[in-house]
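G., before I forget:
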Amino acid sequence: MDDFKEFCGIIGITNHDEAAEMAYLSLYSMQHRGQEGAGIISSDGRQVYRHVGLGLINEVFEKAETIRGLKGRMAIGHTRYSTTGSNSEANVQPICVNSKDGPLALAHNGNLVNSKRLRDKLQQEGAIFQTTTDSEIIVHLICRSQAPRFLDRIQEALRQLRGAFSLLIMTPEMLIAARDPHAIRPLALGKAVDSLVIASETCAMDLIGAEYIRDVEPGELIVIDKEGMKSESIGQAPCRKHCIFEFIYFSRPDSRIFGEYVDKTRRKLGKQLAQEHPADADIVISVPDSSNTAALGFARRMDLKFELGLIRNHYIGRTFIQPHQEIRDFNVKVKFNPVGGVLQDRRVVVVEDSIVRGTTLRLLTSMLRRAGAREVHIRVSSPPVRFPCYYGMDFPTRDELIANTKTVQEIQAFLNVDSLGYLSLDGLLEAAPGDPCHYCTACFNGDYPVPVDDFSKTQHES
Amino acid sequence: MDDFKEFCGIIGITNHDEAAEMAYLSLYSMQHRGQEGAGIISSDGRQVYRHVGLGLINEVFEKAETIRGLKGRMAIGHTRYSTTGSNSEANVQPICVNSKDGPLALAHNGNLVNSKRLRDKLQQEGAIFQTTTDSEIIVHLICRSQAPRFLDRIQEALRQLRGAFSLLIMTPEMLIAARDPHAIRPLALGKAVDSLVIASETCAMDLIGAEYIRDVEPGELIVIDKEGMKSESIGQAPCRKHCIFEFIYFSRPDSRIFGEYVDKTRRKLGKQLAQEHPADADIVISVPDSSNTAALGFARRMDLKFELGLIRNHYIGRTFIQPHQEIRDFNVKVKFNPVGGVLQDRRVVVVEDSIVRGTTLRLLTSMLRRAGAREVHIRVSSPPVRFPCYYGMDFPTRDELIANTKTVQEIQAFLNVDSLGYLSLDGLLEAAPGDPCHYCTACFNGDYPVPVDDFSKTQHES
Amino acid sequence: MDDFKEFCGIIGITNHDEAAEMAYLSLYSMQHRGQEGAGIISSDGRQVYRHVGLGLINEVFEKAETIRGLKGRMAIGHTRYSTTGSNSEANVQPICVNSKDGPLALAHNGNLVNSKRLRDKLQQEGAIFQTTTDSEIIVHLICRSQAPRFLDRIQEALRQLRGAFSLLIMTPEMLIAARDPHAIRPLALGKAVDSLVIASETCAMDLIGAEYIRDVEPGELIVIDKEGMKSESIGQAPCRKHCIFEFIYFSRPDSRIFGEYVDKTRRKLGKQLAQEHPADADIVISVPDSSNTAALGFARRMDLKFELGLIRNHYIGRTFIQPHQEIRDFNVKVKFNPVGGVLQDRRVVVVEDSIVRGTTLRLLTSMLRRAGAREVHIRVSSPPVRFPCYYGMDFPTRDELIANTKTVQEIQAFLNVDSLGYLSLDGLLEAAPGDPCHYCTACFNGDYPVPVDDFSKTQHES
Amino acid sequence: MDDFKEFCGIIGITNHDEAAEMAYLSLYSMQHRGQEGAGIISSDGRQVYRHVGLGLINEVFEKAETIRGLKGRMAIGHTRYSTTGSNSEANVQPICVNSKDGPLALAHNGNLVNSKRLRDKLQQEGAIFQTTTDSEIIVHLICRSQAPRFLDRIQEALRQLRGAFSLLIMTPEMLIAARDPHAIRPLALGKAVDSLVIASETCAMDLIGAEYIRDVEPGELIVIDKEGMKSESIGQAPCRKHCIFEFIYFSRPDSRIFGEYVDKTRRKLGKQLAQEHPADADIVISVPDSSNTAALGFARRMDLKFELGLIRNHYIGRTFIQPHQEIRDFNVKVKFNPVGGVLQDRRVVVVEDSIVRGTTLRLLTSMLRRAGAREVHIRVSSPPVRFPCYYGMDFPTRDELIANTKTVQEIQAFLNVDSLGYLSLDGLLEAAPGDPCHYCTACFNGDYPVPVDDFSKTQHES
């Protein structure tokens, strides 16, 4: 469901004739990870060039001149979701500062849980902040380190961070990729002829013709410069805790995440869901496009017909004028229209990837009924979301999470559906590839792999 | 396939507090029928208000003030595909002129085949043209008629037209809908509380909460004013010849067209195709989203797995910066990415709605193979397109239609696929609802229901 | 005073490598004649290229590509003042239509007095109007003429016009300039190497390096094509009635108008004014920049010090945000600031070019007093404006003309000044070059050289 | 002459219902001090609101909503000239940061001469820089001070600065104005009802109805908060060295600068110049508008006619399309057009405020000759500019200063004029109000009141 905001996507590319163009294309293929702003910083070996802006990647880079002005054979890029506000343009990444080490550029995906503490400490020491991003904190830490070598300073800075970070750091001569020891957010390494590519999702590599090699490892620091690539460690013991929601919802089905095809896992979620919560129904439909794959898996296992019961309008822009007059189910109707001929008089299973607030799904359900569905059965390809995420997923506050305040039966009543089934946590972990211990499942069971300080808690629960 | 440009969509609404807002929403739901420009003209009973512009409906109506400025309880709207060029803004509809009858607004979907002749004649008589649209011709004919009553003048004008026209004409007091005697393009009539709505597709009614009543009949003239609605005739014998391509490709699956659900017919096309050209394969995929429904039908009838083998990026805007360097399959990759896990080592049936030039499909096929597909079988849910359309479908010239210059076997070789099967014309007509005689099939067999003059032929075949 | 809107400026150029660029520069130098919209149409001998828009010439032609796209060696341009409104973009000139003679472009400066009658007649005959400009009427008349030769058709059309017209008409092969028999608005002919240039003011020629040859004569039709230039007559007896306000206010002082330097005449107005209404004062100031030259003449003849007592802020754009709170004299202060050191304790003569409403001048006077002026004496370098202009000068309605409702003494009281003196009509005509009979002085004495129909009167006096 | 870039203008206002609106109007009246960017930060007592952008003040604040969004009763504003470049938007002031003291906003007019040294030192200590402005350095110094009280920290920071600074610092509760001990740049204090206003020039006060009280004193620190206003010292001995160029060129003639009317001083410069370098000529003209006042003074003392020999086009925007073809004197013609009737056959004195490169003046002279001037005599109301300015005036590098490489006779030959006279330095100081020791005259004689470090020298002389 689209009730929560998506994450950021980052891309880095080295040794390419059209580094900025490739970053642009990569960001475009990761547009689903953030639609509010984007930016690219390139380097020609001596200086760096920056262009950032609010909007879709196509809007930020509307003119070819803009991208041609980002010279050099190395670039990093960022696409972000963001809060609005007068200052929001300042927050668009990648950030770029001048320091004693010269220009320093940085793009960050994830969320730190000790940012308040770090920021306070830095301010007490006299640091000034021009954005509200974690990125600026990281840059401050790097520049204030007294360690002799540049890489030492980076390691010292990163060791102070708690939470999720998939990072790209660029100087005029060097690209550095780093990932927190829990490897919460994805970060993959690929290769295209002579170029190395580092991206949040592998779909970004597909478009520019690069091939996936491996993931950046938990706690790994990859340094790419003229000498080639070398791998170092941040200096903290790795302990994988991948965000399992990447498989459930965030990543594109054609991407490989944490080394695995998203599509396969997502189909397994649907199958597992069918096993746990079969439904006596005529057809299975998805909420396009995010639950398409899980719905297919569900239909397959149940041996039910998969149908296109909802048509999605993809032309929604950032602004949309709303009529004053009330139109029934307007907020879902703008996105989805039911297909009468498919739904009429049918018992319908709707496979949804997750339920956060439940309000949109309730409207959708009512719309399906009005379009003729005789029964509506909701099947959710993830467990109930009960706890906030502090590592980068922008859930509503705890009180707004419907599963936090209502039982499954109450939710079923609220949605006014004939049945409701959530995938179990065990089922989810069984469907997910590899060792179940390697996933963060905090939003389902409250087991936070990285302790969260009180301030961060307050922020999310208020 | 997206090789040809789409049509226009039109909307008219009467007796509504937020007529312009409703027109805006309706156009938004018909955005697939034209993305190059849009406009709305409203009337408050005394004067008319107009706003048109280039771009998507959301771009043309970016500010709420713009739409609030379109006062009154009656409005017509238009969304169009368009040729580019310095003058193109002038061509955005609805057109509005001042005449002896006061302000006259007009929105047109379709294509006249005698426009050159009419235009020449009008110019000889001293008429001047500020656009290159058919709409301006129609307005000239209305204003030059010497018939005493306004409606007589409209009838006299419309009787001179040859070709396809679904028309909305608005004066400050009156909304008129008209459709050519062959009813080539769709036009539906609906109702929302006290309002009457006339729209190209019924999905435009769904969004604003109106209900479909019936189609505007072939050769019918509907007049809506304070007295209510009355039906007249243009004065020519009706002879249905609906554009069958609306079922194959243009219309949204959730719309009713020519009185029938598009979705149902489109699924039948897939089933019929499976019957005519079964395939020995592992999975069936569509080219999202246009052939989704036909592919589902095909898979169902063949009892094969329907899979999501291609992910479509919906964020493409009007401008897209291309890299200088060659990227393999770039032009399809920007839109579609193959899902490796689905295709790897599989024998794949790709259901496509139609083949026009074949060049895009060839790139797509090569991309599927590179993603691991062992065999690629193309199944097309329409017959070979061999003849140009003169009634509003913007095919390439005859020489560019691949089925016009190559046999099916040659096309199969060109596409480099393991098999290729087109739906037969008989099969198409069987799947389409109602009397087979009621469809225009000229693009497949050259049987043009309305004679086309030489000039129009030259235009399309040069 | 800036209380009335300015006129349009037009430019035509033939046989030049950068015709559109020259038109652009010329319009820029005539920007004072209209700031609301501008456009250029060029011809490459076969087809025409058009770009028009709202705003200053620099805003309409913001990108070099735009102007480079206006190909060919011939161009016409227009800069206009305009009313606002949703439809205003449609009214931006030059207009371009397709007719039986092919493309026809037209730019018009002036105002017809029989436009209502012509428009009604044309509409009765079936003509449609997409703008509210006189230009569209003229184009209709040309295209509807049944005369055999193109030039005959133009002559026939122009003979039906009543009022002021300085016209440029362009076809792909030909540029035609025409002026009404009274030659009310200016139109000059110049030469630059191989090019012929026709412009409203000669300052447009100076910038592009052309030299003034002579004026287009009253009732003259100049035709420029490959064969060269030939002069014909519209076919009506010439009778000069130049708008004397061009000398008083409209034209730039560095232009030649009606064959004479504006600067010289304007200085004479000041001298004559001094002779008629001397003032016992310390200093003379102008209202910059429009009355600078007259003020200099006044000061010279009186042998008083000319001072810069008001500083004008030239950065005013089209939009200006006004504070809610009342600021004294705000509306004049935004434009003018008094120079304390100059005014303090002085008896000040303010030379103004004309008084229309008087409200702005009243604020200005009050501001001067507050800045320390001991006495304020107003001297106006034109007679009282008592009658509306129907030939293109956009005065307020008759009731708003202060001299129409108040005596000079009452105006003096209204302005709250120590003395007030207007130039006499005789004095004005003596200062103006040439035969006094050759000027239109209708706004001062109501002697309209071209009879005005009732409708036009209503329009201006309501 | 316009050969050098202008300065910045700053404005601060407290205790006003429409603080941001007043800042906007004030900046508009100081638009001549910088046209490249502008910004306003307001405070409502708890938080601050910021809007900045590139362009004229009217462009940056195009929508009323923007300025209405800057809430609160206190605001500071800045208008700046700037170098271009991809990063320039980041440099637009006022700057705003978050620090241990909360939000801190700062607007700066002037130029530090030890900025390189300060920046290096700060970076060594780990500071990061996101702009290249002096403002960011000052903010860093404030935030890094370990002094206990906020005001102590500001004083400690300011005592480290060398060079010119007229500063406004704002926190949510407090507005602070400060001026370097030499008071190089202007800064005035005024009052409007209950509000205190601090502005670079008094013309900014006139528009919003405030009255000048006194200047901010050299080395003074003014603190305005709820308790009222109190004056402190930065802690350095004051030693006035006002930039004398403010009188010659920068400031508006209607402003009071350093406590004195600019207009009066500027007229005296003209008179003194006439005394030193009389001319045997017919008329005196200015280069509008910057040398108008000095030219009037010159003409008065010489008892020669002051004429308007050049008309300036004020419509120049930021972009201007240049023709490919060479047009004689194009670069001056775009701005100025000679008035033929005034110049024809006359011996002309042109009073210019200063000569920097001399190239524009040379073109102007040639244009005047072509317009008929028999003789051209240049009189300059300032001494030869021979040395760079390090305190904020953006001269070209030393080699480009024509007076640095040529004698007066050689300059006369270069300009191709009949005579050339510069005002002497003694004459300048005599005309300027007050003690001659209180002015910085470094650009004329190289006496730099604040020692300049080598780096800054390199920057200006390379």
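Chain D has two domains: 9-239, 262-312+329-438. The longest strand of chain D covers residues 102-109.

More on Monday.
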